[in-house]
Design goal:
The complex is a heterotrimer of chains A (about 250), B (about 290) and C (about 325). By secondary structure, chain A is α/β, with parallel strands linked by helices. Chain A contains ten helices and ten strands. Chain A has a six-stranded mixed sheet, with helices on both faces. A four-stranded antiparallel sheet of chain A has the order 2-1-4-5, covered by helices on one side. In chain A, α3 packs across α4, α3 packs parallel to α5 and α4 runs antiparallel to α5. In chain B, α1 runs parallel beside α5, α2 crosses α9 and α5 runs antiparallel to α8. Chain B has one domain: Orthogonal Bundle (ABC transporter involved in vitamin B12 uptake, BtuC), CATH 1.10.3470. The radius of gyration of chain B is 19 Å and the shape is globular. In chain B, about 75% of the residues lie in helices and about 5% in strands. By secondary structure, chain C is an all-alpha fold. In chain C, about 75% of the residues lie in helices and about 0% in strands. In chain C, strands 1-2 form a two-stranded antiparallel ribbon. The chains are: A alpha/beta (about 250), B mainly alpha (about 290), C mainly alpha (about 325). Chains in contact: A-B, A-C, B-C. The interface between B and C is large, with 48 and 55 residues.
């Protein structure tokens, strides 16, 4: 499997704060990689760098052979990268359907036909289970609904790489399982996934490989088993003696 | 030498601009309110002094205090009971609202005093000193000294008094201020009234230097806008530095380009500063605005 | 509003407007022409303000640009219709040139920048020789009787108002419309969803500039004389703003109501109060901003749409994006 996303020595400073410090790892095509770490570790900042909302102070991000440095976010999206936001940003004033349509119309790889784009809207809504609520105002959705909408918009763009930012946060157990199912299905269809998560059950259950960030640096990298046994990771984030369901839940 | 004289004139004028700008910047910084009616309060100040001068022969520089008091008394209830309600709806609504207030107040003044140009000319208006080859006219000099005194006074007030502390706390974090028991609605009203008083003071000062007319506030407000953009919205030291820069730019473009082009230069400067460095020289990020990720 | 319902209403309105000169005397036609001019400009402003969410506080300047384009061209022998066409294009070009840098600014900064542009253009026109400077410019008079003048300009303004409303409706359902509505909701989300923010924002502003410019062009010919201070009056810009706000920003019908309401009130005040009419107008604006800031139409609109998160009313504070979380 070739490397789809290559992050090389990426650093990002905000005034005096080093949010990302020499971060390097890669994601292969078709992989599902989890990105975990305590709050403030730099996970969302890294995602912002990848999708172009923030510029890296140092280092490079390469996607499918093209450099993403200094490329505008909408252009990065057109290369095939889609992301969801930790705090959902629905297009208020439009219906659910219009939200997803907007994403499909403007987003994703160039060269998709008008028919394909329209079909992608229906499909995305169906995958996340929002079809019955398609004509509802986006504003009126609750948290779980908004998260699904975030996901639907990303999926409607038929991306090669899907960046999920805490898509499970705030969901109850049933909802988490439902979304996990969607993500599994999508990955199974060939979409590469990089997901930030705090919900351990989800990360351990979904990701084959995990990268741990702490204070902007890569603390550990490996399979879920390796990472959860790593003493540094335990000290920084997991806490010793924590019972995670990862290994058995798969 | 001529240039130096012009620069001195510019600096003295800058002092007056400073008083006008500082009040404006204060209101903006503390409550995120762009007070267009700042112009009206300048006019009110000028006309109050004019009135006192022509009817009771009160010296204008003395009547500044009265002008400030009038503006303060008028402004406090307006903010407290009216404008405070518009604040939560965002800056743009408050912009429109204070615009309406401005329109109202200015036109009332226009009705009472007519649009004719008036002047306040105390007997010593033509006195001036010579300092070598330079001339320092007395009135602008006095005004400049007053302006410095006012800004220093404001600074002391904000730094040393407990009310000043309350104002600064509210500016930094409105929610936290409420939590520690600061009556934010009152602080807003007081700050607005203080800004109005400073506007009135600057109005009187300008009234001693130039003729006054009901539209003068608008003309000066536009300069104040440029100053706060230069210095940084919400920043008081910024307002001072900005005033100096603007008055110098004005003096220089009037001398080297043409007096008519001064306004155009000022506004182009405004737009350029906003595009290049919106927070100006000293400005903090807009009140409540997150730093971009 | 359902698509077909809109076109039905439009047809009805157009029909009424076409027949109006039969029923109205010259005074009322003048008032109606003025109102229709404001309707056209308010709808135009709505595209950048209501749909895109960018508070263009100085849009009235385009009225001046359009007016001066017509005045200057006609003084050089150009006919009215080509001059009018130019008065559509020139503001568009200016909006493109200024829009690219200025539309990068958010909310407050953008509002102030447009005010700066408004005043900069004012002082520019005051100082250029060929614009007649501060004393203004007269425009070749319409060659026809007073009645013909009255009717012709009524139709011109009515036509422009209809065009403005139609353009707004078409934009709303178009690709541009989706893009700017997305931008208003969340510029960041729009960007990562492939929307080129600058392109669409500028397009929106250019359209609003062109329609406003046309109004200025017609006005110049109608009035026979223009001068800088009234053509670039900041009060015009703010009035437009208030009209859109009070009527309901972001709806197609809202600005029409706002324009008619404010202009009718304005006319009434002017005719009854003369000198104090601005003071009363100011008072109205003040009280409206304090007590009905969300606009009359949008009050109903908001309740129908339902409330936002946490049950709080949806917060429209122009240009302030929500912050992200820390991760």
């Amino acid at each position: 499997m070739t490397s789809l996303l290559e992050i090389s020595r990426v650093s990002r400073d905000f005034g005096g704060v080093r949010a990302l410090d020499d971060v390097s790892f890669s994601v292969a095509e078709g992989e599902m990689v989890g990105l975990i770490g305590p709050n403030g570790a730099g996970k969302t900042t890294l995602m912002n760098v990848i999708c172009g909302l923030t510029r890296a102070t140092e280092g490079a991000v390469v996607f499918a052979g093209s450099s993403l440095n200094n490329v505008r976010p909408n252009a990065i999206n057109h290369l095939g990268i889609a992301r969801t936001f930790q705090i959902p940003k629905p297009f208020v004033g439009m219906t659910v359907w219009e939200n997803v349509l907007t994403a499909s119309l403007f987003g994703g790889r160039r060269g998709r036909s008008a028919d394909a784009r329209r079909a992608a809207v229906e499909r995305a809504l169906e995958i996340v289970g929002l079809s019955p609520r398609a004509r509802v105002a986006a504003e009126s959705l609750n948290v779980a609904g908004r998260k699904r909408l975030e996901l639907a918009r990303a999926l409607a763009m038929e991306p090669r790489l899907l960046l999920l930012d805490e898509v499970m946060a705030g969901l109850n157990l049933k909802e988490v399982e439902a979304v996990m199912g969607v993500v599994e299905r999508v990955n199974g269809e060939g979409v590469t996934v990089l997901l930030i998560e705090h919900v351990m059950k989800a990360v351990m259950g979904l990701a084959r490989r995990i990268v741990v960030l702490h204070h902007g640096q890569v603390l550990a990298e490996g399979t879920p088993e390796d990472v959860t046994r790593d003493p540094d990771v335990i000290a920084a984030y997991l806490g010793s003696g924590i019972a995670y369901e990862g290994q058995d839940a798969r | 030498m001529f240039l130096l004289q012009q620069l001195i004139n510019g600096v003295m004028l800058g002092g007056v601009y400073g008083v006008a700008a500082v009040g404006f910047a204060l209101v903006w910084g503390v409550m995120n309110e762009i007070n267009i009616a700042h112009a009206a309060f300048m006019v009110i100040g000028a006309y109050t002094s004019f009135f006192l001068f022509t009817t009771l022969h009160v010296d204008p520089l003395a009547s500044i205090v009265v002008a400030m008091a009038v503006a303060f008394a008028l402004a406090y209830p307006i903010q407290r009971y009216l404008l405070n309600r518009a604040l939560p709806h965002g800056l743009v609504i408050t912009l429109a609202t204070t615009f309406g207030l401005n329109l109202f107040l200015e036109n009332v003044v226009r009705r009472v005093f007519s649009s004719d140009y008036r002047s306040i000319s105390p007997s010593y208006i033509t006195t001036s000193f010579s300092l070598g080859p330079l001339t320092l006219p007395l009135v602008p000099l006095l005004v400049f000294v007053l302006a410095v005194a006012f800004t220093a006074g404001l600074h002391l007030f904000l730094e040393r008094s407990s009310l000043g502390l309350a104002i600064r706390a509210t500016a930094l974090n409105r929610v936290a201020a409420r939590i520690v028991g600061i009556p934010v609605q009152v602080v807003y009203a007081f700050t607005f009234a203080l800004g109005a008083a400073l506007a009135a003071a600057s109005g009187t000062m300008i009234g001693t230097l130039q003729s006054i007319y009901p539209g003068m506030g608008d003309a000066f407000l536009t300069k104040v806008f440029v100053i706060t953009a230069l210095g940084g919205f919400g920043s008081i030291p910024g307002a001072l530095v900005g005033s100096l820069i603007l008055s110098l730019v004005e003096v220089l473009s009037a001398t080297y380009l043409s007096p008519n082009i001064v306004d155009f230069v000022a506004f182009s400067l405004l737009v350029v500063v906003l595009v290049v460095r919106p927070q100006g020289l000293f400005g903090k990020r807009f009140y409540g605005e997150e730093a971009s990720a | 509003m359902r698509r077909y319902a809109f076109w039905l209403w439009l047809l009805l309105a157009a029909g009424l407007l076409a027949l109006a000169p039969l029923a109205l005397n010259e005074y009322w036609m003048r008032v109606a022409s003025s109102v229709l001019m404001w309707v056209a400009m308010a709808e135009a402003l709505n595209i950048i303000l209501g749909f895109a969410g960018y508070p263009a506080f100085g849009n009235g300047a385009f009225l001046g640009v359009g007016g001066y384009t017509v005045a200057v061209l006609m003084n050089h022998g150009v006919g009215f219709w080509p001059a009018l066409a130019a008065s559509v294009l020139v503001p568009g070009l200016i909006a493109t040139a200024i829009g690219v840098p200025v539309l990068r600014l958010r909310g407050h900064y953008f509002a102030i920048a447009t005010i700066g542009v408004n005043f900069a253009l004012l002082s520019l026109i005051q100082n250029l020789g060929f614009t007649g400077g501060g004393s203004g410019l007269s425009v070749p008079l319409y060659p026809g009787s007073a009645e013909a003048l009255s009717v012709m300009f009524f139709y011109l303004f009515a036509g422009l108002a209809v065009v403005s409303v139609v353009v707004t409706q078409l934009v709303r359902g178009s690709r541009l419309g989706y893009a700017i509505r997305a931008i208003q909701a969340s510029e960041e989300a729009a960007a990562v969803m492939g929307i080129n923010g600058t392109l669409y924002k500028v397009a929106a502003w250019v359209i609003s500039a062109m329609l406003t410019g046309a109004a200025g062009g017609i006005y110049a010919y109608w009035n026979g004389y223009i001068e800088p201070v009234s053509m670039f009056d900041i009060v015009t810009s703010v009035k437009l703003f208030i009209m859109v706000l009070i009527g309901g920003a972001g709806t197609v019908v809202g600005p029409i109501l706002g324009a008619v309401g404010i202009e009718v009130v304005s006319e009434y005040l002017w005719s009854t109060l003369g000198g104090l009419h601005l003071a009363v107008l100011g008072l109205i604006i003040l009280l409206a901003g304090v007590f009905v800031p969300r606009g009359l139409l949008s009050l109903r609109f908001w309740r129908r749409r339902g409330r936002g998160r946490d049950g709080a009313p949806t917060n429209r504070t122009w240009g302030v994006d929500e912050g992200g979380g820390a991760s």
